[in-house]
Amino acid sequence: MNYNLYNQPIGDAVHSFHQPEKPDIEILEGKYSKLEHLSTCHLDDLFELLCDSNNDLSWTYLPNDPIHDKEAFSTLIHHYIHSEDPYFFAIVDKTTNKALGMMSLLRINTKASTIEVGHIHYSPLLKRTRIATEVQYLLAKYVFESLRYRRYEWKCDSLNAPSKRAAKRLGFTYEGTFRQALVYKGRNRDTDWFSIIDKEWPDIKQKYECWLDERNFKRDGTQIHKLSIRSHV
């Protein structure tokens, strides 16, 4: 424990702190997938997969209600394309070159060196696939190794059980619940907070890379070993 000259406990010194950059990259490429800065070329694929009425349940915890009209969806996508915070990416399958979903970096605070992943919208073709995990790895690697943030956050509605499970599986540590954090879609939201900090990233990165290795998958694509990242409760 560190103490100041008044014998008060204080935090550890942060040496050579450099304010991180804002996201500005056009593409992040992995073995199975790419994260491409969202553009109009992704519109048709995303409308087909995300706006099908059979996929309405995927909109429940997002800011917008389900959209089935292409013009309305195009308006939303154009807004996302020109947004700097959130900064949106399309999730692209390298095999088919088809956009299967989207996600973003948001609440970008360069002075505090914190950034959040959110607006995660996976189509049914993404769920429980290697790509769904790889894009989370690619974005975390970009945040910690290229942009040099100290803290990477994940927040979700406390009732969104799949999102909470995903956060823990991906190595985020649960930090608590902000009660009545906001109102959206005419209802209350208690928000659960999760994070990864920079000193945890090397170990988490290694676990991602072991899981993503082609040798961890059978011929039918099923995993041999589960992604196991110890996350604090």
UniProtKB/TrEMBL annotation:
What are the record keywords, sorted? Transferase
Domain of life (superkingdom): Bacteria
Coiled-coil segments on the chain, per record: none
Q: Which GO terms describe its molecular function?
A: protein N-terminal-serine acetyltransferase activity; protein-N-terminal-alanine acetyltransferase activity
Question: Does Transferase show up as a keyword for this record?
Answer: yes
- Could you tell me which residue ranges the N-acetyltransferase domain spans? 33-190
Keyword Kinase assigned: no
What protein am I looking at? Acetyltransferase
